[in-house]
């Protein structure tokens, strides 16, 4: 009886216990209500866990009622929920800048809270909001210390990235590392990118000789384990227009001004009767047009317990706002990323990308470019004559022999460029024993390009662009490289206080390729259709083909040791040894050490419980990095020059000695110092990052060294030696603040501001003259930009002005300006006698401008209200000057309308000189042509609406978002040219405006949809 009673009691207790264990299902969503796949769901104090599926759903069986379930996901705050029913919905709060976020630092990762270098990250959410055509645009205004300038607004034109200023007279571009291998990230599909990490200080020393200009680490998207297949489609269409037109003179204004100019020069009036001329032709309206842009991409991703995958493709088709399809760009990409757990110890990862693009270009950014002609052709001329032919611009002294009809120029421009590239990597991670992982990977780039340019037989009326004999030039280039990385990483923890991570490895890098170019004459039918060398039969007396080959190699070893004590005191030391074929036997090897350290003050006991300050870290770094961006084999004498020899009375094309060798040439060396702090306040709502930095570049690789002409350095293909003879210092301060607030479940806001101050100073130029010069101004004038000791890199070197001579008495009282080309007269520019010797001559040239901005900054705002999102991104550059060089200084060329405020008599103006056909010195390079190019640009504005998830999911859609946006909405500036933010990329002469193709204003409508 007792046993039966005991059995009944036990059965009741068991039944009661089972009654208190329930099955729980639910959904996890983000702040906007969209499902979150891959969220970790764990029963507290239990080993039971799962992850959400593609729809954000999960299921837990046998959960004791009242238990707590923990939800955690990277980028979101961990949340704990008590189980009170069988179904729950959890909304995770975004924490995109979580201190536990993992940051890529090169050959490894690190928690953001433990990073001791100056590192900035741009995530995929920011990229989605900016919607850049080229991924480099996502860095402008979002990352401190990074300045992105455009070489042209033409479709497919490259962008220039500068990290913490211009430090060398040569190559200043940072090195991009895509998933571990060197690559061109400008060609990537922006929607394939998970994150962009910028290493700005000695943290980049792990990359040695390629790290001096900074490192940009690109992590592409991969599938996630245990998630259903996710299909994402993004599409946008829009149109582009010029963001600016310059106010040129209309026909009547031009004729009146020209009459005045001729009268002041003592010549007959060219337009005795100006009535009826009206406004004439606006040549900018003729060349500018609305241009379409279409961008589509599709991705499929997912994963199981063992395998992850991501497949994507994209298509971009963009026409130019000048010339339409004559300056068009079309790009297609395809990508496949696979990951597999081959065993419990071995993991495979792979990523392969195929890129194809075709690009057509017009003559731009220089004397004789399409926009140069559109600005300088008189408005009195019509696009076509009475017979329907393009109007010829008169070949007169007043219009020169290079100004032609821009519409005829566009119509007779024929070229094509096709580029194919395959790049990617394959890697294995092998966990040899606990804490130690061996990683091996192979990265590669292989590309082939073909180009064709056709010059038809044509006459522009006796201009320099006349073609007397049709020709076609074709080229083919093959570029290849591969890298093999093998490194081991050991992670251990001693006594729950000492955390140690050690990395040691080697890298082998090789790049090789070849190119061939040839020209054929007398194209059949003078037609693009028959423009192929195989069809040309013309013979030329000069060399019509050229070719080259190259082969470079680098062998590297590196090591890094990271240590922290209780995640409070942090230190990291690294060293890299590089050996390169670019330098001779005595300088082939370089060593690049660095050390970084940090102190998380907020973890100290004396700090107490965080109240106002939630996190505070002080950090510093110092290290040496290298730069080897020069031509190959500069330490050897090579037969790379051109020469013509006479054999038996016949001229024969041959070869000659190339550039004079320098066996002592070696690496540039960058010594980088950084001191910074990271802080969070007000319950982690406000993040602050501040850095002081100093970068001293030594042993600059300088060419064009003055040597005796007896060496033959003036011959084609030859040149002066390259030597290490310069030093430049960049120092400055970076500050970034980010405020993030969730006011309610419906409304959230993120406001961010960043600013960078930079001072650039040249410390040394030991090339024999004490300076380097480059750039161009006008026709036949000396180079206007210099690199010189004590001055900023590329400063403008010319004459300083002091107003306008108002009368002859002022002219007589002033030092003579005859040495500049002509005697001064009332109405001419008055130049300053800088050295006070009583005469104005070349000794009075001085610093008249700096192309490097004193400060750059970004202000960005994001708002989310229920299903509506709004974002605006801005960028500002302050203190940079630019040279106005897009006007031809010929008497009959058209002018910008500021000339209407010219000097016409005593007291009329003290800023703009008179107009005349007579000789003056007004056109010599002076600060009259240098303008403040500071600007504030609204880079991106976007408004989006997401369909309610509960409605979308009923038709099998997890996300449906519609948006409209404008890129390059407006630029506030006093600069008179097309684009104050443009540059030709040159460190010396980069701030000279030859008539930049303006960056277009783009209106977009788009769709984001996930299945």
Automatic annotation (TrEMBL):
Keywords: Cell outer membrane, Membrane, Receptor, Signal, TonB box, Transmembrane, Transmembrane beta strand, Transport. It comes from the Bacteria. It is a multi-pass membrane protein. Pfam families: CarbopepD_reg_2, Plug, TonB_dep_Rec_b-barrel. Residues 381-969 form the TonB-dependent receptor-like beta-barrel domain. One of its GO terms (biological process) is siderophore transmembrane transport. One of its GO terms (molecular function) is siderophore uptake transmembrane transporter activity. InterPro entries: Beta-barrel_TonB, Beta-barrel_TonB_sf, CarboxyPept-like_regulatory, Plug_dom, Plug_dom_sf, TonB-dep_OMP_SusC/RagA, TonB-dep_OMP_SusC/RagA_CS, TonB-dep_rcpt-like. Residues 111-215 form the TonB-dependent receptor plug domain. It is found in: Cell outer membrane. GO terms for cellular component: cell outer membrane. Residues 1-19 form the signal peptide. Belongs to the TonB-dependent receptor family. NCBIfam families: OMP_RagA_SusC, SusC_RagA_signa. This is TonB-dependent receptor. It comes from Flavobacterium panici.
């Amino acid at each position: 009886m007792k046993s039966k009673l005991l059995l009944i009691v036990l059965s009741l207790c068991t039944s009661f216990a089972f009654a208190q264990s329930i099955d729980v299902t639910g959904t996890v969503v983000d702040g906007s209500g969209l499902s979150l796949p891959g969220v970790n769901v764990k029963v507290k104090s239990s080993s039971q866990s799962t992850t959400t599926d593609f729809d954000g759903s999960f299921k837990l069986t046998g959960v004791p009622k009242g238990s707590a379930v923990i939800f955690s996901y990277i980028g979101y705050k961990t949340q704990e929920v008590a189980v009170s029913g069988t179904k729950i919905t959890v909304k995770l709060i975004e924490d995109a800048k979580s201190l536990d976020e993992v940051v890529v630092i090169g050959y490894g990762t690190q928690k953001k809270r433990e990073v001791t270098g100056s590192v900035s990250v741009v995530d995929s959410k920011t990229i989605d909001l900016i919607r850049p055509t080229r991924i480099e645009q996502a860095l402008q205004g979002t990352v401190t210390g990074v300045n992105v300038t455009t070489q042209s607004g033409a479709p497919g034109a490259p962008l220039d990235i500068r990290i913490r200023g211009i430090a060398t007279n040569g190559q200043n571009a940072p090195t991009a590392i895509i998933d571990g291998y060197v690559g061109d990230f400008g060609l990537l599909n922006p929607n394939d990118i998970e994150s962009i990490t910028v290493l700005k200080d000695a943290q980049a020393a792990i990359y040695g000789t390629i790290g001096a200009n900074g490192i940009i680490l690109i992590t592409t998207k991969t599938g996630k384990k245990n998630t259903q297949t996710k299909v994402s489609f993004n599409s946008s269409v829009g149109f582009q227009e010029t963001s600016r037109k310059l106010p040129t003179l209309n026909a009547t204004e031009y004729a009146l001004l020209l009459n005045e100019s001729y009268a002041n020069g003592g010549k007959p009036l060219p337009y005795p009767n100006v009535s009826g001329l009206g406004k004439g032709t606006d040549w900018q309206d003729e060349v500018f047009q609305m241009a379409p842009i279409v961008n589509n991409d599709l991705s499929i991703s997912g994963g199981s317990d063992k395998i992850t995958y991501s497949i994507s493709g994209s298509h971009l088709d963009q026409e130019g706002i000048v010339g339409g399809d004559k300056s068009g760009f079309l790009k297609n990409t395809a990508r496949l990323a696979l990951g597999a757990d081959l065993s419990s110890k071995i993991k495979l990862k792979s990523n392969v990308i195929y890129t194809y693009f075709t690009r057509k270009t017009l003559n731009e950014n220089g004397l004789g470019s399409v926009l140069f002609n559109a600005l300088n052709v008189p408005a009195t001329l019509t696009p076509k004559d009475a017979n329907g032919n393009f109007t010829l611009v008169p070949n007169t002294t007043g219009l020169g022999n290079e100004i032609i009809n821009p519409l005829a120029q566009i119509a007779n421009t024929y070229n094509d460029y096709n580029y194919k590239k395959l790049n990617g990597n394959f890697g294995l991670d092998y966990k040899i024993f606990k804490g130690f992982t061996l990683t091996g990977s192979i990265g590669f780039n292989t590309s082939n390009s073909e180009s064709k340019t056709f010059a038809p037989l044509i006459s522009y009326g006796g201009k320099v662009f006349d073609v007397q004999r049709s020709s076609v030039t074709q080229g083919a280039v093959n570029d290849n490289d591969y890298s093999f990385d093998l490194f081991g990483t050991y992670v251990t923890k001693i006594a729950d206080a000492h955390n140690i991570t050690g990395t040691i490895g080697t890298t082998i890098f090789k790049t090789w390729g070849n190119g061939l170019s040839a020209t054929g004459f007398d194209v059949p039918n003078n037609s693009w259709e028959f423009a192929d060398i195989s069809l040309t039969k013309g013979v030329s007396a000069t060399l019509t083909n050229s070719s080259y080959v190259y082969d470079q190699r680098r062998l590297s070893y590196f090591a890094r040791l990271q240590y922290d004590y209780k995640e409070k005191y942090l230190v990291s030391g690294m060293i890299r040894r590089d050996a390169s074929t670019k330098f001779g036997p005595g300088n082939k090897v370089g060593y690049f050490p660095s050390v970084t350290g940090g102190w998380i003050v907020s973890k100290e006991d004396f700090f107490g419980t965080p109240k106002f300050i939630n996190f505070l870290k002080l950090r510093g770094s110092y290290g040496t990095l290298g730069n080897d961006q020069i031509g190959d084999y500069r330490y050897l004498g090579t037969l790379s020059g051109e020469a013509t020899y006479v054999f038996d009375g016949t001229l024969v094309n041959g070869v000659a000695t190339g550039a004079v060798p320098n066996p002592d040439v070696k690496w540039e060396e960058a010594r980088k110092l950084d001191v910074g702090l990271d802080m969070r306040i007000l319950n982690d709502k406000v993040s602050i990052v501040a850095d002081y930095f100093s970068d001293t570049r030594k042993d600059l690789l300088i060419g064009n060294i003055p040597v005796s002409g007896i060496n033959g350095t003036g011959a084609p293909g030859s040149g002066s030696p390259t030597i290490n003879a310069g030093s430049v210092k960049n120092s400055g301060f970076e500050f970034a603040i980010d405020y993030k607030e969730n006011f309610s479940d419906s409304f959230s806001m993120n406001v961010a501001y960043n600013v960078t101050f930079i001072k650039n100073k040249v410390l040394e130029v030991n090339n024999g003259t004490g300076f380097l010069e480059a750039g161009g101004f006008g026709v036949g004038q000396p180079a206007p930009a210099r690199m010189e000791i004590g001055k900023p890199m590329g400063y403008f070197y010319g004459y300083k002005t002091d107003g306008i001579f108002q009368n002859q008495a002022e002219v007589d009282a002033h030092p003579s300006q005859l040495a500049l080309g002509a005697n001064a007269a009332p109405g001419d520019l008055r130049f300053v006698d800088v050295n006070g010797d009583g005469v104005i001559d070349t000794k009075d040239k001085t610093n008249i401008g700096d192309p490097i901005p004193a400060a750059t900054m970004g202000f960005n705002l994001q708002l989310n209200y229920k299903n509506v999102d709004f974002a605006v991104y801005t960028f500002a550059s302050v203190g940079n000057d630019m040279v106005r060089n897009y006007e031809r200084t010929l008497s009959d060329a058209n002018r910008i309308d500021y000339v209407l405020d010219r000097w016409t008599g005593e007291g009329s103006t003290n800023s703009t000189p008179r107009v005349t056909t007579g000789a003056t010195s007004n056109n010599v390079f002076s600060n009259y042509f240098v303008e403040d190019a500071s600007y504030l640009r609204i880079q991106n504005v976007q408004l989006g609406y997401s369909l309610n998830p509960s409605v979308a999911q009923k038709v099998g859609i997890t996300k449906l978002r519609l948006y409209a946006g404008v890129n390059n909405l407006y630029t506030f500036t006093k600069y008179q040219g097309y684009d104050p933010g443009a540059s030709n990329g040159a460190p010396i002469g980069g701030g000279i405006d030859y008539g930049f193709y303006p960056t277009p204003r783009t209106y977009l409508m788009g769709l984001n949809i996930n299945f």
